[in-house]
Amino acid sequence: MRSPRPPVRRLVAALVLAHSLTGTAAFAQYRPPPMTESQRLVREGETAQVDASTAATSGDKKRAETKYRKALELFEKALDAEATSVPAAAGLGAVGMALNDHERVATRVAPVYAANPQSLELAYPLGISLFKLKRYEEALPVLQQVSVANQPEHLLVHYYLGNYYALALQEGDAAVAELQAYLAQRPDKLAANDYQIHELLGRGHLLRNDPAAARLSFERAQVGRTESVSIQMGLGAVLEMEGRMAEAMALLEGLTVRFPQVPEAKERLGRLLLESNDVPRAEVQALALVKLGGTAPAHMLLGDVRMVQARPAEAETEYRKVLELAPGDVAAQIAVGMALQKQGRNEEAISFLEGAVQSGADSLELWSTLGSVNRRAGRYARAVEVHRRVVEMAPKQALGHVLLGADHFATGQWDLTIEDYTQALKLEPEHADAKKWLARALAHRARDRAGNGRVDDAVRDLRRAYDLERSSAMARRLGAVLLQQGSHAEARKVMEQGVQLPEAAWREHLLLGYARLGSGAPKDALESFEKAGQMAPDLAAVSDVSAGSALAEMELGQVDAALKRLTDPGTSKRAIEVTRANLSRAYLRRAFARLESGDGAGARQDVESAERAGVGGNQSELGRLSAFAKGLAQTEEGRFADASAVFKRALTPTPSWARPNTRQLVDAFLLYRNDKLPQARKALTAAAKRPIPEQAQFTAAFTSALHRREAERAYNSGNMRAAEKAFKAALALSPDSAALQHNLACVAYRGKKANDAVAIWKKLEGTVPQASLNLGIDAQERRRDMGQAVDSYRRYLASGSAPRAAAVREWKERLQMIYGLAEPAVAPTSNPEPSSATASDTTP
Question: What Rg value do the Cα atoms of the chain yield, rounded?
């Protein structure tokens, strides 16, 4: 009977125990799992690769190539056996790079890398191969991955990336970073080639707008080397960036002499000469460049020269030669279109550019030019359509919106134009053209709005425009519309800034004059007009300035000078308009001035002149003001009934320039002049029942005049008590009046207070001529001092304002003859500063 099978655990335990009893055990030999076919091929490929490297190191190039090709074959077979093998793909990549078989590397390694994107041993050969095949868009992210890892064995990646950033992408910061990483890791044995790196660094610093660092890099590249044209041109670019254009051109010119067969120096020199408008010398370089090789850049330069010379047909020929040498050159396609347009062949230009676009040249610049050519040809709808395509192609750039703004500007669609340029500035806030043309569009819209009575809206537009474009012309536009709005103080502020700007001319000073005039500063306004007159370029401008000066002179009370200007306005239409609007006002201003001096006849003549110049009809405000002035003139002439009728017509209904009590004041004045003093006082009292602040001085003066006239009447009638009372009342209202003091002294003299009167007359003798006359009468009749009397009469006659001169001269001469009094050796001088005060010709 067989025993049952022991459990597994007991069996294992027994075996372990048996093993421990048998002594030292023999170890079993380790055997790795058998290699796959792909792994075997990879090992053989690696062996062949090592042999190739050894042969290359020993200088046996033929054997090295043979071994490399064998290794390549083995790695490729390994990939065929296992398509996802990373070692096989890495080996193929390394060997393929050694054999420059970049197409094979790109084809076989890319799928494996796609499955293993973190593998640097795949990324390195794949990125280099793609770069060598000029498949830059594919190569760039792969090489950037390797660059970030920053492994010494991948040193060349920094070089390739730095080169590409500097020369292709024009990204200065990225180029400098990669090239500096290269210099930090490169072995000493490669230092001999550092000049290449420093030259690329110089170009990277130029892209970064750092001329100092660029100069240092180019100078380091040049150390220990014979003169390099490319490095010298780099130093020339540094001079350009520093604004030292003359030195840059001198450097390039030296290169063209020392290296006459190098086209780059000639081309750059030609470009700089063209930019500096030295067209003859630019043409010399362009012709030499064409003769040297007839390359596309040479013909392009010569074409640009011909365009500047206004020879577009010849320019077209050159541009077409560029297209023969480089059929897809976008710049040349654009240039041909522009040359055709300059010849007036707009339809051909459009057709040519449309053909270029349809052929697949999907260039932003080409589309931009196509739209602009359509606009210049008057095909605005197509221009807008094309430029909207530009917006779609570059939605984050201002370019498309700027071009659309130009299209809408050309058709006067100001709202759309402003919207376009505003959008452009949202994308690029410092875009110079967008700012400039937005300001111009706002100015145009403001002009239209102001013309339609929307002055406030026009002011808002022009304020914004002035913020965008601080120019004297924009200040002038804003100032003009502010004046139209009636904001004289703000207009003055704007124009005082505007005349300080470099391009300010006579128009800005002219407008400042009007702004100052409107803000109540006629003296400053006249200074501005005088400055404008000094800058005026022609007779019409002089006329415009003269009209403004006339208005300032009128405000300053220089009415005669103003009238002289206004009666001879010149040929300027603007000056004639100003004259037409202000000549009648100037005549009326002088009429009122003459009325103040008591010249009624002269005032009436001025009123008649104003009516001939045009006052807008009897019922116009100016016409009624003219009638008012005529009434005052008639009053001065004693034509009281006529004056009363004129006043009634002028003041019914009450005009805007009059006050509610003007009619009552006029009635009081008529009565006063008609010597109806009680009635005048009653009318004045009624007019003053509701005081008007600005009339206070006039009312006081009128009341004083009534007192004075009453005093004179009482004096002449011998009622000294009433005369004294009236004169004192008048003097209380005008305590500084020398005439009233004089006349009150006359009352005192008649009241037996001769000494008091004489003392006052002596005090007033230099101010009131009648004081000298009265002193002479007193000396002759009361004191019997004939010499003193003659001296007083002489001073009276010498005063220059002696209404009784004939009689007084007769008195003086009679006294001299009777008493033998001779004339003094030196005649007495008149008062050097005669007073404007007047006194009644009152004598004791």
Answer: 52
Q: By three-state DSSP, how is residue 261 classified?
A: coil
Which residue did the predictor score with more confidence, 554 or 799?
554
The answer to whether 264 and 228 are in contact (CB under 8 A) is: no
Instruction: Pull the structure tokens for residue 443.
Output: 């100015």
Give, as one character, the DSSP assignment of residue 654: P
For the ranges 297-311, 459-473, 802-816, which has the lowest average pLDDT?
802-816
Among 724, 659, 726, CA closest to 687: 659
Q: Encoding tokens for residue 594?
A: 């003459």
Distance, in Å, from the CA atom of 658 to the CA atom of 664, rounded to the nearest integer, reads 11
Give the Cβ contact number of residue 714 at 10 Å.
19
**Cα 554 from Cα 537, distance rounded (Å):** 25
DSSP structure string for 725-763: HHHHHHHHHSTT-HHHHHHHHHHHHHTT-HHHHHHHHHH
Q: Are 395 and 427 in contact (CB under 8 A)?
A: no
* Tokens representing residue 104 in the block: 């094979």
d(CA 803, CA 798): 12
Determine whether 678 is exposed, middle or buried from the number of CB atoms within 10 Å of its CB (0-12, 13-18, 19+): exposed
Helices (H) and strands (E) in the chain, counts: 44, 0
Beta strands in 689-793 (DSSP E): none
- Cβ-count burial of 419 within 10 angstroms (0-12 exposed, 13-18 middle, 19+ buried)? middle
Cα(671)–Cα(711) distance, integer angstroms: 17
Distance separating alpha carbons of residues 635 and 629, to the nearest angstrom: 10
Indicate the DSSP class of residue 166: I
- For residue 831, pLDDT over 60 is answered with no
Mean pLDDT of 415-436: 96
Provide mean pLDDT across the span 275-285: 94
Element (H, E) at 109: helix 102-115
Q: How many CB atoms lie within 10 A of CB 783?
A: 13
Rounded Cα gap, residues 265 and 268, in angstroms: 5
Measured distance CA(498)–CA(479) in Å, rounded: 9
Location of structure tokens 């390039």: 252
Task: Judge whether residue 24 has pLDDT over 50.
Answer: no
**Does 666 have pLDDT greater than 50?**
yes
Type of residue numbered 549: S
Rounded Cα distance, 820 and 684, in Å: 55
Residues counted in the chain: 844
